[in-house]
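Tokens in:
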């Protein structure tokens, strides 16, 4: 294997391990905490998590096999099934991110009427649309035999070589697919999160005014306390910007190279480096490892749930070890005690 192939191979292995562990932790938190299950965004996060898990166990390992064998990792029918899952799961996960951004926009911009605007029924309808949308595109590609092993990406996915007889239809399909998934989701993310950022900055300004008035009124306030208030004011301004940048930035960094490569491949097939093709596919895979942290595990509710689970497990293990030590001590005392004749 070339050194670049080895680096990509190790990169995919790390993605698989991190994605499996982090997404499983999200599912455990969802099952353990009833408050998370009651929330409407929990349905979108659960759908996104299962898409990431199935993508991790179905398509990523076959990319490793493709990198080693430099060819189709299985039969044609098997590869078509995996390609169907690749298209379906990737599309579904993108649309789930768009649904999460709309939910947060409504929660921030309309906080008083959020529960009347976004209900579990609305979430189920949105999820039904994401599934219908994803199934439609993946089914069309599979029925037209446009899915197979693609050497450029070392994976079972949409393959333009299998659409040589219907090249025009394949180009239209690819452009429409990425326009209604990646581009549409990116527009929704930018519009909703920028509106959220605008509201967050407005509230920060109001808090800053109150803070500065309080600091000016307290003449005898210690300089360290005054500096701490100013530091918290600066951190409050940056916190919302960092979160919004993380939501949009991870989506663009992970998916944009792969989508752009797909579009460029339509006009100039054979002129793209295989190393770049595999790397762009791996970047798309890496979103499955980023999502649990971006949308779940870095939030206070999930961190508290993980902490409670860890404490529960540690207390149970320490309790079991103490019980075993007591039992061993009693057994030793019994063995050392001899009956008197």
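Residues out:
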């Amino acid at each position: 294997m070339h050194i670049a192939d080895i680096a990509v191979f190790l990169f995919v292995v790390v993605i698989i391990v991190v994605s499996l562990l982090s997404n499983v932790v999200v599912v455990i938190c969802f099952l353990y905490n009833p408050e998370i299950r009651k929330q409407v965004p929990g349905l979108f996060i659960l759908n996104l998590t299962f898409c990431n898990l199935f993508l991790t166990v179905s398509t990523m390992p076959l990319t490793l096999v493709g990198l080693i064998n430099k060819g189709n990792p299985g039969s044609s029918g098997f590869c078509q099934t995996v390609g169907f899952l690749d298209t379906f799961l990737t599309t579904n996960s993108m649309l789930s991110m768009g649904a999460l951004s709309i939910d947060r926009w409504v929660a921030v911009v309309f906080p008083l009427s959020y529960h009347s605007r976004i209900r579990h029924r609305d979430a189920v309808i949105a999820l039904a649309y994401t599934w219908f949308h994803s199934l439609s595109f993946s089914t069309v590609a599979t029925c037209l035999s446009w899915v197979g092993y693609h050497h450029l990406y070392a994976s079972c996915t949409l393959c333009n070589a299998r659409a040589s007889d219907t090249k025009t239809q394949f180009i239209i399909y690819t452009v429409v697919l990425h326009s209604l998934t990646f581009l549409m989701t990116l527009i929704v993310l930018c519009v909703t999160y920028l509106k959220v950022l605008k509201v967050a900055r407005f509230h920060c300004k109001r808090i800053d005014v109150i803070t500065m008035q309080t600091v000016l009124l307290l003449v005898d306030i210690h300089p360290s306390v005054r500096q701490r208030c100013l530091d918290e004011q600066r951190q409050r301004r940056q916190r919302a910007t960092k979160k919004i940048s993380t939501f949009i930035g991870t989506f663009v960094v992970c998916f944009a190279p792969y989508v752009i490569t797909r579009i460029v491949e339509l006009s100039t097939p054979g002129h793209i480096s295989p190393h770049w093709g595999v790397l762009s596919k791996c970047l798309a895979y890496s979103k499955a490892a980023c999502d649990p942290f971006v949308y779940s595990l870095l939030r206070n509710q999930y961190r508290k749930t993980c902490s409670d689970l860890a404490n529960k497990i540690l207390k149970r293990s320490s309790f079991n070890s103490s019980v075993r030590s007591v039992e061993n001590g009693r057994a030793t005392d019994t063995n050392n005690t001899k009956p008197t004749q």
